[in-house]
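Q: For a teaching handout, I want to show students what a protein-ligand complex looks like in token form. Below are the inputs, and the small molecule is geranylgeranyl diphosphate. Please produce the holo structure.
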Amino acid sequence: MDNYDSLYKRYLEEFNDFLQSKTDIKKFQGRDSDGFYSVMEAITYSLTNGGKRIRPVLALEFCRLCSGDHTPALDLALAIEMIHTYSLIHDDLPCMDDDDMRRGKPSNHIVYGYANALLAGDGLQALAFETIARSPLGDDKKVAAVTLLSDAAGPCGMVAGQAMDLENENKYIGLDEIKATDTLKTGKLITASALMGCIAGGADREKFLAAETFAKNIGLAFQIVDDVLDVTGDESKLGKPVGSDEISGKSTYVTILGVESAMKLARDLTTEAVGVLNIFGDDAWFLEELASKLLYREN
Ligand code: GRG
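A: Here is the structure, written as tokens, with geranylgeranyl diphosphate included.
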């Protein structure tokens, strides 16, 4: 019988092995690669550079909850992580957040240069959708996954959230605008991760809706905790400098509510998230613990 740590570890190992098998630099996606090696290397550097793999784990776990088996969601989990990785590479560029460190290591553009980092992100975005197209899932599930992921990542999702975030620099904005920005920038991809697990696992409507409510709430709590860590976090654990929100003059949950009230809001959202999991019965224990670990995480 698994406990939380052993199941998370098992998901991580299986996911990382799967990722390795699909992104071997000479056999990208199982075909001989005649691609440009510096870009392939830049892609591999960021894809294999640590990371909590929260989004893949959500996809695998929702698939397990809906079908008893997590493996049908592996390709979708990889596609989501590719989109997430692209967003981090581009987010670190000087024209965006301008961060030299990511996960305790030099950011992609510091190692490979601006052009390769830009192209690595572009390449990852294409590879994500290729990964879904080449997966063994049925056509209906592939179309549903592509529709969901493109909406979550695109100009009505993460890209819009990033644009709003950049626009908000050095401006006072209220909680509603912060929530709207975070829902798009961070929340939609987290929600898509849970829902893509449901798609792979053949969820019914009730389970799909419960997964959506759960993920929307933990997605927002996740972003609030991210704002708190930017003020209270330990740089060595975060793997990046703290205080970047203050430097860029951003309004955040913390600048408006303060650390205590921001954390209370994150706790309330987590309680609401966990409250909808009863549809999955006793099997929901892993997600309950995941929600709590995300709330009290240090990185
Ligand atoms: C460039 C289009 C474009 C979008 C970038 C996601 C994002 C949008 C920027 C990242 C900035 C940021 C720190 C957002 C806060 C929440 C977040 C997404 C944190 C990073 O995700 P984790 O903690 O990262 O899951 P790991 O390293 O564990 O994979």
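A: Two things your students might notice: The first strand starts at residue 101 and ends at 102. The CA atoms of residues 140 and 192 lie 16 Å apart.
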